[in-house]
Amino acid sequence: MNDLMPRPRALDSLSPAQARRIALAAQGFLDPAPAGAVDRRHLRRVLGRLGLLQMDSVNVLQRAHYLPLYSRLGPYPTQLLDRAAYRGDRELFEYWGHEASLLPIDLHPFLRWRMATDHPWGGVSRLAQRQRGLVDWVRNEVIDNGPLTAAQIEADVPRRTGNWGWNWSETKIALEWLFWRGEVLVDRRNSAFARVYDIPERILPASVLRAPTPEPAEAYRELVRRSALSLGVAAEPDLRDYFRLPVRPTRTAIADLVEAGELIVVSVAGWRTPVYLHRDARLPRWVRASTLVSPFDPVVWKRDRAQRLFDFSYRIEIYTPAAQRVYGYYVLPFLLGDRLVARVDLKADRAASVLRVPAAWAEPKAPPETAAALAAELHRLAGWLGLAEVAAPERGDLAGSLWAELDAQPEGGAGVV
User: Fold this and answer.
1) Which end of the chain is more exposed for a tag (fewer CB within 10 A), N or C?
2) How far is CA 225 from CA 45, 222, 254, 256, 354, in A?
3) By CB neighbour count within 10 A (0-12 exposed, 13-18 middle, 19+ buried), where does 219 fall?
């Protein structure tokens, strides 16, 4: 039986369950798992669904940009993404999309409107105005000597300029300004995950750099179009948030796409705002996912959307004092079928080769098979991370049953400690 129902364009109202399945299908959770080795084709398929990968420096488990691919493809070689982003005939580049992101290189022209604006952090824009000599000098350093890290440029400030009035932090801010403006980009990340900067001409293909710059209104339409395709069904704030777009231009772009028939106005029971369905969205009969989801995955990164779609109240507690955390430091939701049924705090103890599970919690109405499915997923995740064992959960209402399932399922994966 085909898992897909007809395109839901004839519907003018959706149930929350239908909206949830549409959203998960749009995000790639209905695509078949790779039958063999994961290759660049699979990577492109996922990137075509997501449109971007958010980056984050926290590495308690795995870097954020690697995890959405794992959630959709299963274990895969992370070097595959590294090559697409930083080597040879690259297909991605770093820039501000949804926060710092890896983006398809064909989006570069559609983000030049952002490059032409002041940095949203006032201190960066103020330094660029007050320290133009420093900005010029940093730019020339990258032109003449790149690729360079911020630390390498900072080390050259006194020696090359003789100007002791420019300090290290100001040099970093100047680089951030140049990066925002698109005058420098990221050639690669070094072993410490620091950006290594170079000029766009040595990073992007000439065809991308020569591509005409669209009018801002056209760029907004394209970004909203891609957001809608990746979300499947979305409220206006969801569409705006995907690429962090300004309010008025986003609303204008939405109206244009509705008029063109690319977006269809529908309602979703319980949603208080107008909802937009992409005309190519699919409504599956079911979703059979069983995977952990990164805190920086598009499925959950807009917390009120996660609440609307999954009745899942979620926040990341990295910046919460330890004594005030409810669920843990780095907590991943667990997607089973089309529901988020549990959450688990995880840490990769690389020195001991153990995937540690400080806590595991079930959601209300989690099905009886949750612990068994989560145990299998933890073994799979540990194997992908190259960890030999999975530690028994330390706390949480799912800890006991999960420990028993972990102990019962060591075959073919990591052991249990």
Assistant:
1) N
2) 17, 5, 8, 10, 42
3) buried
- How do strand 13-14 and strand 263-268 relate by DSSP bridges? parallel
Q: Which of 242, 185, 334 is nearest to 53 (CA)?
A: 242
Phi, psi of 39 (to 5 degrees): -130, -175
Q: Are 27 and 230 in contact (CB under 8 A)?
A: yes
Exposure string (b/e) for 383-412, b if CB count within 10 Å is 16 or more?
bbbebebbbbbeebebbebbbebbeebeee
pTM value surpassing 0.90: yes
Closest by Cα among 39, 130, 136, 61 to 329: 61
* Amino acid code (one letter) for 305: R
Closest to 326 in 3D by CA, of 343, 301, 339: 343
HSE toward the beta carbon, residue 295, CA cutoff 13 A: 24
Q: What is the token pair recorded at 295?
A: 């805190």
Two tokens, residue 178: 């140049």
Q: State the amino acid at position 223 in one-letter form.
A: L
361-408, pLDDT tens digit by residue? 999 999 999 999 999 999 999 999 999 999 989 999 999 999 999 988
d(CA 189, CA 179): 14
7's tokens: 């395109």
Residue 276 token pair: 């937009």
pLDDT along the chain (417 residues), means of 10: 50 92 98 92 97 95 97 97 94 97 98 96 91 94 95 71 53 95 97 95 97 98 98 98 98 98 96 95 96 97 96 93 94 98 98 97 96 96 96 93 86 58
Element (H, E) at 225: helix 216-231
